[in-house]
């Protein structure tokens, strides 16, 4: 079954938009059968979630879930990613961020890469597995604020995000400048790892907001160990840097994905 549509196009105009604004919408990425299968498999995973974890804490499950590994290494997606990070591509993280109705938490303005312990050419694919909008807590980005130095941060009382971008560092008209990812299930966007973004609570009565974020980097980037909890057992496992296209250019002995 073809999970990711081979017809995805990443035009020169889209590439220019990504470079200038720090994000671009990619349209329909998953086939209808692929979307249905992904939704069903994610339902199964949420049903297996350890009671001490939240549905937005399913980290790097591609290391244990073959369907996720197959999805993130789809050639049509890698063709897009290659335009940003180059020909030698590593998947270093996936994050299933699932907000249940009425309880899914808000995420404040932040820049991803400021929290990471890796470096190099990187990008993120944000794939909606449900229809997403403001009502059920979609993501908002601040176009063109990905360039330059990291924005100053301040501490918060939040147990998930201990820091947020200092509101005084954001433009006064941020509510008018922000762009929401109002996507249908199976559609996706790509965003720069330094673009400021946030998401509101899932205030809907009966709609989930389930999203897969896939993080790619160049094979010559800085790679540092990290650990995550297994979504089923809460046991800690080590992060892998998995080569999905090209060569292990620094001879690190990277694990290379081999499609079935």
Written account of the structure:
There is one protein chain. Helices cover 18% and strands 27% of the residues. The chain is globular and about 50 Å long. The strands form 4 sheets. Strands 1, 2, 3, 5, 10, 12, 15 and 16 form an 8-stranded mixed sheet that branches. Strands 4-11-6-9 form a 4-stranded antiparallel sheet, with no helix packed on it. The chain has a two-stranded antiparallel sheet with strand order 7-8. The longest helix has 16 residues, at 32-47. The protein contains 5 helices and 16 strands. The model has no long low-confidence stretch (mean pLDDT 95). It has 260 residues and is of the alpha+beta class.
């Amino acid at each position: 079954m073809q999970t990711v549509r081979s017809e995805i196009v990443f035009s020169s105009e889209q590439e220019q938009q990504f470079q200038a604004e720090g994000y671009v919408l990619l349209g329909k990425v998953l086939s209808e059968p692929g979307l249905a299968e992904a939704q069903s498999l994610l339902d199964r995973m949420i049903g297996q979630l350890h009671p001490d974890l939240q549905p937005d804490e399913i980290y790097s499950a591609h290391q244990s879930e073959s369907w996720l590994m197959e999805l993130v290494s789809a050639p049509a997606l890698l063709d897009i990613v290659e335009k940003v990070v180059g020909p030698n591509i590593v998947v270093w993280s996936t994050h299933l961020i699932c907000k249940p109705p009425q309880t899914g938490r808000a995420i404040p303005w932040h820049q991803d890469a400021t929290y990471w312990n890796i470096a190099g050419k990187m990008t993120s694919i944000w794939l909606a597995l449900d229809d997403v909008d403001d009502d059920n807590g979609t993501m908002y980005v601040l176009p063109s604020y990905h360039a330059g130095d990291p924005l100053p941060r301040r501490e918060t009382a939040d147990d998930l995000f201990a820091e947020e971008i200092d509101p005084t560092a954001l433009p006064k008209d941020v509510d008018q400048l922000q762009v929401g990812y109002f996507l249908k299930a199976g559609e996706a966007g790509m965003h720069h790892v330094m673009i400021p973004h946030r998401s509101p609570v899932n205030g809907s009565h009966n709609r989930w907001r389930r999203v897969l974020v896939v993080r790619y980097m160049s094979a010559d980037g800085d790679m540092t160990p990290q650990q995550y909890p297994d979504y089923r057992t809460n046991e800690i496992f080590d992060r892998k840097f998995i080569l999905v296209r090209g060569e292990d250019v620094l001879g690190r002995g990277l694990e290379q994905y081999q499609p079935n």
